[in-house]
Amino acid sequence: MLDAFASGFLVFAYLATALFQIAIVFGAPLMEYSYGGHNKGSPSGRYRILSAFAGLGIIGIAGHYMAQLGIFTPLLGAELNAVANWGFAGFALLVAVITSAFGSKKERGFWSPIAIAMFLAALVVAF
Predict the structure, then answer these.
(1) Which residues have C-beta within 8 Å of that of residue 106, sequence separation ≥ 6?
(2) Residue 98 — left, alpha, or beta (φ > 0 → left; ψ -120 to 50 → alpha)?
(3) How far apart (Å, rounded) are the C-alpha atoms in residues 108 and 49?
(4) Residue 20: CA atoms inside 13 Å, Cβ hemisphere, count?
(5) Which comes out higher in pLDDT, residue 32 or 120?
(6) What are the pLDDT digits (tens) for 93-121?
(7) Rounded to an integer, what distance in angstroms lies between the CA atom of residue 96 and that of residue 54?
(8) Residue 121, C-beta contacts closer than 8 angstroms, at least 6 positions apart
(9) Tens digit of pLDDT for each residue in 75-85?
(10) Cα(113)–Cα(97) distance, rounded to whole angstroms?
(11) What is the chain's mean pLDDT, rounded?
């Protein structure tokens, strides 16, 4: 029951994060909330390309958690699924640490609570 809630939260959080990345791809002036927060205003072409790849990867992670919920057919067997869950928990930990330690005050204030909550939810799913 708790793992289903955590998976649902992760689907929502990853899809919302993907929408944020897609907004950057289309030129939304969100740079002070991303990529260290050192640039303000609209993103350059380099950051738009980076956000496009990040958004696709994030959607893939959301798809993994949708398979956990039974929305999609799982692509991995039980053992590989467990490895992937721990890998995504490690990724979420890395993002939480980087987001909390680096970047602008606005970026930390916006993303740190989200990243920490995503890490905790990923741990619940992994266990």
Answers:
(1) 32, 33, 37
(2) alpha
(3) 23
(4) 18
(5) 120
(6) 999 999 888 878 888 999 999 999 999 99
(7) 16
(8) 6, 7, 9, 10, 13, 92
(9) 888 899 999 99
(10) 11
(11) 93
- Inter-CA distances, 10 with 23, 40, 66, 71, 121, Å: 20, 28, 9, 14, 7
Q: What is the DSSP string of 64-112?
A: HHHHHTTSS--SS-HHHHHHHHHHHHHHHHHHHHHHHHSS-HHHHHHHH
- Cβ-defined contacts of 68-73 (< 8 Å, 24+): 68/3, 68/4, 68/7, 68/125, 69/4, 69/7, 69/8, 69/11
Structure-token pair, residue 104: 């602008």
As given in the structure block, the two tokens for residue 102 are 């680096």
Would you give the DSSP letter of residue 26?
T
Residue 51 one-letter amino acid: S
Residue 28 token pair: 């939304």
